[in-house]
Write a structure and sequence with these properties.
Length: 256
């Protein structure tokens, strides 16, 4: 029984066959999923998908790449939606220095506003970090995000930042890259993170795990991520699945 803690079933890439993709995930043993919304189009769709399936949940937030587009009304809208019974987290939010659509100072401001919102509504946050680790950590510390904690999604940094994240009340979520042959960092992290702070995700449709690398990712493939981590940690897939699912249910405050 697995929990894909970060999936974009609300993405364009699943428009044609979303229900088949969901069914394949359930058939593979993925019992729970959190669909992550990140802009005006994907947020309502994340909630709609969650409403249609008992064990699918939604997260609502604004992506850093599009930070420049977020208005005060959008922030108020996200706050309203946070009280929806299937919304379990605020995010994804964070910093993405790979793309330059939104200037860094605007990304930081939008990130801070969303952390404050999450603290106000007392919900965990989902962090998107691309090439911005030091600034992310500084902002999380300055805003005292520890109060709500959350997920470092698709963690792709060296193991040296893991302890800092754990100290701030964050879980570490690993996805497809842990299965890539040449990816050493996520493999180190996979064995370094205490089992009670580890999560698995796909970030589908992106970052499909080996042997599907380069193809469209889907939530059923979270099993490939879990199998790889279990192998690296030298524990059974059952134990890894059970623990990471338990972690996600606790973090998202889901009572099943
Ligand atoms: Zn992301
Ligand atoms: Zn994402």
């Amino acid at each position: 029984m697995l929990f894909d803690t970060h999936v974009h079933l609300n993405a364009e890439q699943f428009k044609q066959d979303r229900e088949e993709v969901i069914k394949r995930a359930f058939d593979t043993g993925v019992k729970y999923m959190t669909v992550v919304g990140f802009d005006r189009e994907t947020i309502p769709l994340a909630i709609e998908i969650a409403e249609q399936h008992d064990t699918i949940y939604a997260a609502v937030g604004w992506h850093p790449v599009d930070a420049i587009d977020m208005t005060d009304e959008d922030l108020e809208w996200i706050e309203e939606l946070s009280s929806h019974p299937k919304v379990v987290a605020i995010g994804e939010m964070g910093l993405d220095y790979h793309w330059d659509k939104s200037p860094k100072d605007i990304q930081k401001e939008v990130f801070r506003k969303q952390i404050r919102l999450a603290k106000k509504v007392n919900m965990p946050i989902i962090i998107h970090n691309r090439e911005a680790t030091e600034d992310i950590i500084e902002i999380l510390q300055e805003e005292d995000a520890k109060e709500v904690g959350g997920i470092m999604h698709c963690y792709n940094d060296s193991a040296k930042y893991v302890q800092t994240c754990l100290d701030m009340n964050f879980y570490i979520s690993l996805g497809g890259p842990v299965t890539f042959k040449n990816a050493h960092l996520p493999k180190e992290v996979a064995v370094e993170v205490p089992l009670e702070r580890l999560l698995v995700e796909t970030d589908a449709p992106f970052l499909a795990p080996h042997p599907n690398r380069g193809k469209r990712n889907e939530p059923a493939y979270v099993k490939l991520v879990a199998e790889k981590i279990a192998e690296l940690r030298e524990i059974s897939l059952e134990e890894l699945s059970e623990k990471t699912t338990e972690n996600a249910l606790k973090l998202f405050n889901i009572n099943q």
